[in-house]
Amino acid sequence: MKMTFLENIFARLERASSVPVLGEVRDGKIVSVTGGELLALIEQARKFLNARGFKKGDRCALLAPNSIRWAAIDLAMMAEGLVVVPLYARQAPVELAAMLKDSTPVRICCSDARLAAEILKFWPAAPKISLLDGIFIGDAKQTTKPFAHADSDVLTLIYTSGTSGEPKGVLLNAGNVNFMLERTGARLDELMREVKKPSGEAERIFHYLPFCFAASWILLLTALSRNGVLTLSTDLSKLSDELKLAEPDYFLNVPTLLERVRGKIEEAVREKGGFAARMFSRAQRAYGNRLRGQGTFADSVSLHLANSFMFPTIRRTIGANLKALISGSAPLPPETQQFFMMIGIPVLQAYGLTETTAICTLDVPGHVEPGRVGPAIPGIEMSLGENDEILVRGPNIFPGYWQRPEATAKVLEGGWFHTGDQGEKDGNGNWRISGRLKNLIILNSGHNIAPEPLEDALARELPEAAQVVILGNQRSFLAALVTAQPSNGLKAERVQAALDSANAGLPHYKTIRAFHIVPEPLTIENGLLTANGKLKRDAIVARFAAEIERLFEKKGA
User: Fold this and answer.
1) Residues 6 or more apart from 432 whose CB is under 8 A from it?
2) Helix-strand-coil percent breakdown of the chain, rounded to 5?
3) Alpha helix (H) ranges present in 292-432?
4) Which residue ranges form the domains of the chain, and what is each CATH number?
5) pLDDT at residue 550, rounded to an integer
């Protein structure tokens, strides 16, 4: 009989009983646990849960930042047949309380007393809250087998971002995860063969994204299923130093970080000036020509020089042993993907939603097309519906939303999951994501405009801005809210210059004709970004309603 993913993980941890499998960066050092030590932590948590008399299918909330103990209690809950409700510790307490009320857990496992107290302010009738320090205690010598899940058994209830409405709880079952881990593992096998990782040598993986997000959780489970060591970030302000310690082969990213890294490198080269800046500029032009099939002998010389004398140094500043980057959550601008490819670090893009068990597509190593997110993973079907909406079906599709039968029926209409994303597929089967249907701006001229490409274009022209939000629904033209970074104010002249550049070559109805500068960035804490950093467009429009109205009145829209 085929083993489940949970049985595979337990078996792998037993085989790795004396070697590191999971670590955290603490005070400039990596603190690791072996497979045996992680099994002991899992057993401690299982004994705690078992002693409370919880039954199969009970929901148990996990509210804590990433840590070794997070992974242990997540695995323990699943091993006991419980449904894990992972929540983002940085989210506003009022939002956390609302999701907790909706999921009705039998217990809340929380990282610290302060956060627990905040939850109780907004939900005095909450079930008992157990701090992690009180869970990992007692004897844990005997490891018992995990609960044997059927494919239909629900494992987790993950809340979606809620970019334009109340978050919904997405149910994922054992069948979803069994399928997905097979596919992610196979694609990582391809990557390791492509980069010729020595056989038997453990992979090194770095991770900084919260485990309460589906893609992040799938990476955790995939890493624990493989011959690898996963190192967890504990301080995003020290990410560069942590990367140097972890020396990963690959790690999962969001486009924002990769664009920031690219920007810092290009700025450093410009500031250095002289021969280095000229070499870098020539290499960029040469690489662009090569991608367009217009490379010359001089371009080959420029790239050879950069690859010999400059790019290895740049790669070492990111990660000395880095074989590849994986990017998801939003489309990565082609220019940024090409930048990393140019310096010798392939970027594999993935596309998916929580409802698709995080992933639908993933670039095939060695066959990356910048600006696209790869082909559908084997076993998954993808098609286009009305208004070029991406439709998906396969073993990765969730069984439904928690206590929302009407919403479930709507998105699964016709046997396909309706993603709400617009896209298109090329002749090689590689997909491109163009925007969200619900974000479409419809001008009163009747033109339909996806705001995301325009926001990305303006953000590239204005890297000192924190966010760009395009507006104009039922208006006669487009306008933008531009938010400033905390450390630097934005000048109107600078924004106007960036607008002029971004507007160049666009049709008249896509040009951005007005802007308003917001002095502070949008954040998760002020309720204007989702837990994974996406714009809460409805909330933004409501918060800045007066400024937006004046913006359009001034220009006569």
Assistant:
1) 331, 371, 372, 373, 423, 424, 425, 426
2) 45, 20, 35
3) 297-309, 311-318, 334-342, 405-411
4) 5-249 (3.40.50.12780), 253-320+323-437 (3.40.50.12780), 440-555 (3.30.300.30)
5) 87
Do 355 and 170 touch, CB atoms closer than 8 A?
A: yes
Residue 165: name the closest of 541, 548, 537 by CA: 537
- Give the pTM: 0.85
**C-alpha span between 508 and 506 (Å, rounded):** 6
CB-based contacts of 47-51 (< 8 A; 24+ apart in sequence): 47/138, 47/139, 47/140, 48/130, 48/134, 48/135, 48/136, 48/137, 48/138, 49/76, 49/77, 49/80, 49/82, 49/107, 50/80
Cβ within 8 Å of residue 296, ≥6 positions away: 289
Strands 154-159, 389-393: pairing is: unpaired
Q: Which amino acid makes up residue 520?
A: E
Rounded mean pLDDT, 191-197: 76
pLDDT in the model for residue 197:
65
Least Cα distance to 389 among 335, 454, 437 occurs for 437
Which residue type occupies 308?
Answer: S
- Going from the C-alpha of 121 to that of each of 116, 118, 504, the distances in angstroms are 9, 5, 52
CA dist list (Å): 105 to 57, 83, 541 = 10, 9, 33
Separation of alpha carbons 283 and 303, rounded Å: 5
Residue 480, strand partner residues:
470, 515
Which amino acid would we find at residue 7?
Answer: E
Q: Rounded to 5 degrees, what are φ and ψ at 67?
A: -170, 170
Q: Which helix (H) or strand (E) holds 425?
A: strand 417-425
Q: What confidence tier does 529 reach under pLDDT thresholds 50, 70, 90?
A: confident
User: Is 90 exceeded by the pLDDT of residue 256?
Assistant: no
